[in-house]
Amino acid sequence: MLESAVIKQQNYRLDAQYAIETPAFEGIDHAYSPNADWYSDFWNTVRPKFCNSSSEDLVIPTRLGIYFETLWLKAIDAHPDYQLICANLQVNGEGRTLGSFDFLVRYIPDQTIEHWELASKFYLALPLASEWIWLGPNLNDYWQLKKQKMLSHQIQLGQRPEAKDALAAVGIGTIDKHRLVVKGRVYWPTTEANKLHWMTQQQWSSSQQTNNLHPVYEQPKHCWLGLSSNAPQSINLTEQVLTTPILITQNGTQSFIVPNQWPEQAKQKAAGLGTAAFNT
User: Fold this and answer.
1) Using N-to-C axis directions, what is the helix angle for 36-50 and 64-78, rounded to 10°?
2) What does pTM read for this prediction?
3) pLDDT tier at 232 (50, 70, 90 boundaries)?
4) What is the DSSP code string of 236-269?
5) C-alpha to C-alpha distance for 178 and 156, rounded to whole angstroms
6) How far apart are CA 95 and CA 68, in angstroms?
7) Average pLDDT of the residues in 83-112
């Protein structure tokens, strides 16, 4: 059973607005990625669906990727020009699962079929030689390889011979259009101006000479999209030693705070992957 959390209606609306209206993730500069006008128009069309006057709390999945998908599923259902055919349709072959289509969607005005792949990604930028690499906070994800997988495998799944039977089973003969619906943020070292930042716990402690009057709120992962709700209670980072990165808000500013050893661990991770892995 999926773990769940309870959030307020207002926070849910803000998460939906971030998931749908904001421009694409800055690293996905590809023809498959919708432009900012498409996202803005989509949100303006479906916004009333997310703006009911109910004050009841909502139960949402805590897994961020699943939550992101549920917001888009509701948006598609509310849009008069789009119809969901199916979600997460698996393609099997060679005795295993070869992949799955996140969303298969009908564009009603001209009855064309679209394949959408969705992702919500959050990365910390790290310099490696003359390159910037974007690593997941827990060092188990890296954007350059995720992007390569999306472009060379996920979005191309419909071209595999094994996909024809799966598509035919839901009444699809040909996919006419592909979309990469990718949102998220990149956090940079504090040396980079006009960016969202990450810092070690020690760096954060040093910064508190000017911020020590402001409470710190750790954001649970299901709140990362719109950062629409604070944790019910503030935390005291001076009384704990971090072992994993956390996303905080303090005085209206969001930052990732990482364990003091994280930068060295990240460099080792990057070196183990090899620079060739990131030049894609």
Assistant:
1) 80
2) 0.91
3) low
4) -GGG---SS-EEEEETTEEEEEE-TTHHHHHHHH
5) 9
6) 30
7) 95
